[in-house]
Amino acid sequence: MERHGFVHDMLDVKVLILYIMARVAYPVDLQKIYELSYQDDGLSYFDVAEAVPQMIESGHLERVDGERYVITEKGREAGSVTEDSVAYPVMQRARAAVERYNRDVRRSSFVKTEIRQRECGDFTVQMSLNDEVSDLLRLELMAPTQKQAHRLAGAFSRNAETIYRLVMDQLLSEEKENS
Length: 179
Hints:
- Helices cover about 55% and strands about 20% of the residues.
- It contains 6 helices and 6 strands.
- A 3-stranded antiparallel β-sheet has the order 1-3-2.
- Strand 4 (about 110-115) and strand 5 (about 125-130) form a beta hairpin.
- It holds the Pfam family DUF4364.
C-alpha cells in the first residue's frame, strides 16, 4: 500500500523525532513524542513506538526519569546534519507544536493549585502565580464541594495572569482615585 504524506519510511520517522527532540526543552514520554511528531498522515503511533527504542539503542536518545526521553549529544549532531530533509510543511507544524508544548510546560511551572479537604467537610483551594523568584499572587478560597474546588483550581490555572492583572488593577485604581 502506498503511504501518503511526507513521512515514508523509518528513516523519515527518526529524522523527524530528532528534529523535535532537539527543540523540546523538557524530558518527554513516548505519547508526547508521538503527539509532537504527528504532523503528517504518513506517521503512526507504531512508527514512533518502534523508532524510539532503536534510537535509544543507537545512542541518539536517552531514557531519563523512568519513561521519559531526552536527546543526546550524538542525537543533536545527527539531527543538525539531517534536519533539512524534513519536509518544510511538517517542519513548520512540528516547530509550532514544540513551541506550544514548551510554553505550556514553562507556564505550568509558574501556576500552582492545591486542593485539600478540611475537617468540616468543605475544601480549601490554594492557588498561586509565581515568577522565577517568588510568589506574585497567593490566593486561598473555600469551596463547599470537591467539584467546585476543582472548578476553582481549573479556572485559576487557565486564567492566572488575568486574575493577577485584575487584582492589581483593582487595588491600584483605588490609589489613583484618591490622588
